[in-house]
Amino acid sequence: MAPPGPVVIVGAGIIGCASAYELAKAGCAVTVIERDTVGSEASSAAAGMLAPLGESTRSDPFQELALASWRLYPDTVAELRAVTGVDVEYTTTGTLHPLFTAEDVRAAGARCNSPLAKQMGLALLEGQEVFEREPAISKKARAALFVPGDHWVNNQRLTVAYAQAAAARGVTFRLGARVGEVMLERGRGVGVVAGGERVRADAVLITAGAWSGELTASLGSRLPVEPARGQMLALSHVPPLLKHCIHGADVYLVPRPSGELLIGATVERVGFVRAVTPEGIGSLIRSALEVVPDLADRPITRTWCGFRPWAPDSLPILGPWPGVPGLAVATAHFRNGILLAPITARLMKEVLVDGKPSLDLAPFLPDRFLK
């Protein structure tokens, strides 16, 4: 069998870097073209949570995709560390969801009874059990749902590790170059136009995040991918108050081994308006203090925002572009880009190199928006 041909990837976020690494491992000559710097957008507007169940314990295609990626993480983290030496701060102490009303407690108890919840070890902690596990939680909490299967990573370090691993495999990164067009010849993807230069390849993979819709417009059918601005802040977490990730109704708090506590995140459909606002940060602080009051005197160390790619059905868009051999997309991961990176990268390698993905991509194909 002939070796895989060259591939151009548009976008150097977590999805682009992970896909570049997997394709390079498969023998492809890969060039990644990025308008800014590695991991500068959605990949940085995240806390790195790996929570495959989310708010649901129903088995559906998205849940299967999330669980498949979650299962890849231990080996992925070990492999990236062996290749690059980067510690991505993989933490496995689980998430606590404080519960403040009787209705919330009943709903959490029902969640614990599903087969998938039992597989993930969900448990309802009541009364003093909550404060024995996490003393800083507000004493107004009646109970807490404990999800031991929820893990988290340092998302910035993970993106860097993927990029370094890809570079070690020979991947070329062209940063600061804007891709304006996907080149088609005889109905096939044959490269891109970047900074006025034609970059040819046997296949093109679009991982341009919130900018994917803009880029696909050059194909005559624009994907409805929009930016969802996420604002976040970090507090000093020395000495540490929390051992677990804490997930409230409107906020999450993620302790990092590096001594920061991340608090996030807003979801705002305001277009590409890059701003950290008093309203956004203030709402996060108020929600965080309702869950963990003792954070009130902790210094704010930084604030930031980024644009997460969102599709109208909130599902990722994964797979080949219909009717155009040599062109595929992996975008619209919304709030799950870090979680879904390993499985997305594997699936894109399978689509472009093997010709057949190992999971059914039917619910995620771009076709659903291009009819």
The best one-word shape is: globular
Architecture of the largest domain, according to CATH? 3-Layer(bba) Sandwich
Number of helices: 9
Terminal-residue CA separation: 35 Å
Number of strands: 19
Report the sheet with the most strands, covering strand number, pairing sense and barrel closure.
8 strands, mixed
Give me the CATH superfamily of the largest domain: FAD/NAD(P)-binding domain
Which structural traits does this protein have?
371 residues, alpha/beta, FAD/NAD(P)-binding domain, D-Amino Acid Oxidase, Chain A, domain 2, 8-stranded mixed beta sheet, 6-stranded mixed beta sheet, 9 helices, 26% strand
Q: Mind explaining what this structure looks like?
A:
The chain has helices at residues 14-25, 61-84, 102-111, 115-120, 128-133, 155-168, 212-216, 278-291, 337-354; strands at residues 7-10, 30-34, 49-50, 95-99, 123-126, 143-147, 151-152, 172-175, 179-185, 188-194, 197-200, 203-206, 226-236, 245-247, 252-255, 260-264, 300-310, 317-320, 327-331. By secondary structure, it is an alpha/beta fold. It folds into 2 domains: 7-84 and 155-225 and 312-369, FAD/NAD(P)-binding domain; 95-149 and 227-309, 2-Layer Sandwich (D-Amino Acid Oxidase, Chain A, domain 2), CATH 3.30.9. Strands 5-6-4-14-15-16-13-17 form an 8-stranded mixed β-sheet. A hairpin with a 4-residue loop joins strand 14 and strand 15 (252-255). The longest helix has 24 residues, at 61-84. It is globular, with a radius of gyration of 21 Å. It starts with 6 loop residues before the first strand and ends in a 17-residue tail after the last helix. 50% of the residues are buried.
